[in-house]
Write a structure and sequence with these properties.
The chain has about 120 residues and is of the alpha/beta class. It contains four helices and five strands. It has a single domain, classed as 3-Layer(aba) Sandwich (Rossmann fold), CATH 3.40.50.
Length: about 120
């Protein structure tokens, strides 16, 4: 039966996952390692880990990395981007990625900078 054969076939020939975290945020390392292990060993997905640099303006480097990853786009190639970090919804209802800094005053200052450049 044609319907049955179509249902048995995976919808994607290839799956790639980009795992993102902030460079200085090591609190997510164990979770990312566990997730990466499941994605590779259980599902056979190709994974790539990348750390968002904690420089004054990481948007260019993040944009280059994302563009490089998205170059693999094809109808039969599923691309997954997994972000392990902090985020919030701004007053403009947009999702922002932010780097957590332990010192409250520094956190506010850095969140605003990083949120502006990491808007998706």
């Amino acid at each position: 039966m044609l319907i049955q054969r179509s249902a048995e076939r995976p919808p994607y020939a290839t799956v790639s996952v980009l795992l993102l975290r902030w460079e200085e945020d090591t609190s997510t390392d164990q979770d990312l390692l566990s997730l990466e292990k499941v994605l590779r060993e259980t599902f056979g997905y190709r994974t790539e880990r990348w750390s968002i640099p904690t420089c004054a303006n990481p948007s260019i480097k993040l944009g280059v990395q994302m563009a490089s990853f998205l170059e693999n786009a094809r109808p039969d190639h599923l691309l997954i981007i997994y972000y392990a970090g902090y985020g919030y919804v701004g007053a403009d209802n947009q999702l922002y990625w932010a780097r957590y800094v332990a010192n409250c005053c520094r956190r506010r200052r850095h969140s605003q900078v990083h949120a502006r450049i990491s808007k998706f």
